[in-house]
Structure formats: C-alpha cells, structure tokens
Design brief:
- It is a single chain.
- The protein contains five helices and no strands.
- Helix 4 packs antiparallel against helix 5.
- It is an all-alpha fold.
- The longest helix is centred in the middle third of the chain and has 35 residues, at about 65-100.
- The two termini are about 30 Å apart.
Length: about 130
C-alpha cells in the first residue's frame, strides 16, 4: 500500500512507501545513547521510523514533511467534523425558530460555539500559510 492510496493507509503508515527498483544506497549513522533517546522520542511523536524521520528531516529543506502534513490533515479533519456539528445545531435552531416563531434559549451558545470554530479554522489556515 502506498502512502497516497487511501486515508487509512496514509494516516497510519510508519515506513516510507516502496519505490520502483528499490533503494540501492545505504547509509550508516552512529549516535550516542542520548541522541538515540531523542531520535526514538521524535520518531514516536511523529509515528514514523527513525530512518524515515532522518530522511524527512534531511530532505525537507525547511518545508513541511509528510509527518507535518499528516498532522495538519488530522487537525483539518477534526475541524471538518466540528463544522458539521455546528452547522447541524444552527440548522436545528433555524428550523425550530421558523416553525414556532421563537428563538430557542440555546441559540446564543450555539452561535458562540460556531464563532469559536471559525476562529480555530482561521488560526489553522494561518499556521498552514506560514509554513
């Protein structure tokens, strides 16, 4: 399964995808116990292997790497679910108001929640634009 072949595979893949012809070159890197502990912690944090972590860091040239893109994707997925929930709540409030002529008491809280989600989306987009 390649990294881009579907949400589940892309989300959980620790190793890099295979390449046609294989990888012909090998590099050995020796690290101290302290460096090993740091590498293990970083690899676990990003849910990748140490070789993948090293390659992504070396080849990213200051741009985002696949781990960062995966994290952004997960954050955007969470925001997408929040937007769906907020839209559903606002729709129910509007339906009730149209049917009865009364605005429910929870309307203000739902609108405040909608504003908070919009601000969160704006911040996420600003973070992504700044990378």
């Amino acid at each position: 399964m390649s990294e881009g072949s579907g949400f589940a595979g892309w989300k959980s893949r620790r190793r890099r995808a295979n390449v046609d012809g294989g990888r012909m070159h090998r590099h050995e890197v020796k690290v101290s116990p302290e460096e090993e502990a740091q590498l293990l912690a970083l690899a676990e944090k990003h849910r990748v292997t140490i070789p993948r972590l090293l390659i992504e860091a070396a080849l990213s040239e200051g741009t985002e790497n696949p781990s960062e893109r995966r994290n952004q994707f997960m954050q955007l997925s969470t925001l997408q679910r929040l937007v769906g929930t907020v839209a559903n709540n606002i729709n129910q409030i509007a339906r009730h108001a149209n049917a009865t002529g009364e605005v429910p008491a929870e309307a203000a809280a739902s609108i405040a929640h909608a504003r908070a989600v919009i601000i969160r989306i704006d911040r996420q987009l600003a973070d992504m634009a700044g990378r």
